[in-house]
Inverse folding.
């Protein structure tokens, strides 16, 4: 099988399960993983990520490592008990949804999404995602689908991110279309 093929979903699921489990049971490792998406402190997560080589974490190749460190750091910061079903695009939209019809909140959400969609390289996307994931964790009371996010990030380099970015946009704009339709029906 070629390395250009889609990453297997079960590999991503196992990785997320292992990270969630380790964060629940080892507070020191969770602290090191929280710093994994910072280039200056990323090496602190390599102890765990390197031992998970059977899950596909290649520490030597940045484009293979970054999706894992980004997702591991997000999981560790969120202190989630399980993988969620909230998609990234919907989560960004939900960060700015406060029940009012304030257009400035929608503009802020769109600006965050547009900045993420403007990324051409995985390293840039992961760097832009870091504060977005922190914002989601602080404002949305539902866990992200980390398996889906990991898969999307792993796909990012295969087509310059077009497929992944299209998914994020669909998740985001689909939520606003649905909420506008439901408001009109009320």
């Amino acid at each position: 099988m070629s390395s250009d093929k889609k990453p297997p979903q079960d590999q991503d699921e196992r990785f997320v399960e292992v990270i969630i489990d380790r964060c629940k049971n080892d507070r020191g490792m969770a602290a090191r993983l929280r710093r994994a998406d910072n280039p200056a402190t990323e090496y602190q997560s390599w102890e765990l990520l390197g031992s998970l080589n059977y899950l596909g974490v290649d520490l030597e190749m940045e484009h293979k490592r970054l999706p894992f460190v980004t997702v591991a750091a997000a999981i560790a910061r969120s202190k989630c008990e399980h993988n969620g079903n909230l998609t990234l695009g919907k989560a960004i939209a939900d960060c700015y949804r406060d029940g009012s019809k304030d257009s400035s909140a929608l503009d802020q959400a769109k600006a965050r999404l547009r900045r993420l969609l403007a990324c051409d390289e995985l390293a840039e996307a992961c760097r832009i995602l870091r504060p977005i994931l922190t914002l989601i964790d602080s404002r949305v009371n539902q866990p992200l689908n980390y398996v889906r996010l990991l898969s999307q990030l792993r796909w990012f380099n295969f087509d310059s991110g077009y497929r992944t970015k299209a998914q994020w946009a669909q998740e985001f704009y689909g939520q606003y279309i649905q909420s506008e339709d439901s408001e009109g029906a009320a």
